[in-house]
Design goal:
Number of strands: 9
Order of helices and strands: EEEHEEHEHEHHHHHHHEEHH
Structural class: alpha/beta
Strand content: 15-25%
Helix content: 25-40%
Shape: globular
Radius of gyration: 18 Å
Amino acid sequence: MREKSVSTDVLDIAYREYGAPEGWPCIMAHGFPYDANAYAETAPMIAQAGARVLVPWLRGYGPTRFRSAQTLRSGEQAALGADLLAFMDALHIARAVVGGYDWGGRAACVVSALYPERVIALVSGNSYNIQNIARSMEPASPPEEAALWYQYLFHNERGRRALERNRRGFARQLWAMWSPTWAFDDATFETSAMSFDNPDFVDVVIHSYRHRYALVAGDPAYAAIEAKLAAQPPIRVPTIAIDGDSDGVNPGTAHHARKFEGFFERRVFTGAGHNLPQERPAEWAQAVLDGRKAAAEPS
């Protein structure tokens, strides 16, 4: 494993690289509130199958930094997708197997939907992860609404202060609630929690959870991408979608299948919560390999 950094127009993106530089490209992205350590076990497994696995820290996390103080610290979905595409461009990667969960899965879905020529196959935790902002004020069931308490807290300044004052405590609470069967220890949590010390973490997180409910404006630089995402475009690249049957924040995504128009397979990881690759590294790695194999087979 090698830790590196690459510059785009907006970010200096820190990332980990596993495997031979000439291996087939595979990019895996983490979610909130996690970091690149989510793939510490699964990335070497994928690399052993001949991949060059790249695991970036998202904007606002770990060593990744904005290049300008004037850039809006946006956490909107279009920004995450644009970051992934810019990361590929900066590393001269024409096509890759892409994947992730939560925020990282959203970035992978955005690129897969809008730039399918850049994607070999998609592995997506929680399936179709593109937000339908126009319908964000439509209520869900009471249990689903209760699971989203943290998002509603972030809508006001009390939530911003809570996150700013106790980033670790907030993240650990979510880890425990979202993955109730995952017996992570203090060392495992702290290894990732250091990434939340990024100076832009709070701003990016708060913007993300306000923008998805249309409570704040997005970055004009990504307006064209957001406009395309508003149409809820289908995903046509070969996809393996994954849910955990013990996910404390996502009740399952079987109903997302209609959003995929190519090869599609949904898997459920038994006893797994929200942080799928870190809780089930071998199963996640197998999904990546199976997705790539499906892309190579004639339809």
